[in-house]
Amino acid sequence: GNVWIIATLEGDTLTMIKIRYTDKKTSSVLAKRRDKKPDKACIKQETFAESCFKGDVPEEDAKDPKKPPIKVVVPGEREPSPIVPAKDSKIDDKPVTMKLDLGGNVWIIATLEGDTLTMIKIRYTDKKTSSVLAKRRDKKPDKACIKQETFAE
Q: 69-111 pLDDT, tens per residue?
């Protein structure tokens, strides 16, 4: 869900880095590649694909000016999920009253019954298929958690 390949073209060399975001401010580098003869499709955003991530693992040595480490500065931005919970979603036959988009088609949906807040974290794989990642019941929820405007992770 939060794994990305970013690339830059320097002359004829395509340098690519595969990164995973754990939150908006934190990412980790999973792999790096340098392709000195990239396919033409790989040098355009419109046709860049995961199959473009090939080439040599770059040699990096902070002490060797001919092999400087690749610097990565990529702050994250949360993109809205393309798949959203349906308006008629229910938890235990109660209408969902709060939804929180975590990005990557992952949502927290919730319903309040009396004083009990029931929350489910789900991931959509397509419009009709989802999997439950976690379930929580809070019998004494914080007041901010029972209103859509202040419902947060």
A: 777 776 666 677 888 999 999 999 999 999 999 888 899 999 9
* Residue 153 banded pLDDT, cuts 50, 70, 90: confident
- Residue by residue, what is the 3-state secondary structure of the chain? CCEEEEEEEECCEEEEEEEEEEECCEEEEEEEEEECCCCHHHHCHHHCCHHHCCCECCCCCCCCCCCCCCCCCCCCCCCCCCCCCCCCCEECCEECCEEEEEECCEEEEEEEECCEEEEEEEEEEECCEEEEEEEEEECCCCHHHHCHHHCCC
Whole-model pTM? 0.54
Determine the Cα–Cα distance for residues 73 and 82; give it in Å rounded to an integer.
26
CA distance 31 to 41: 21
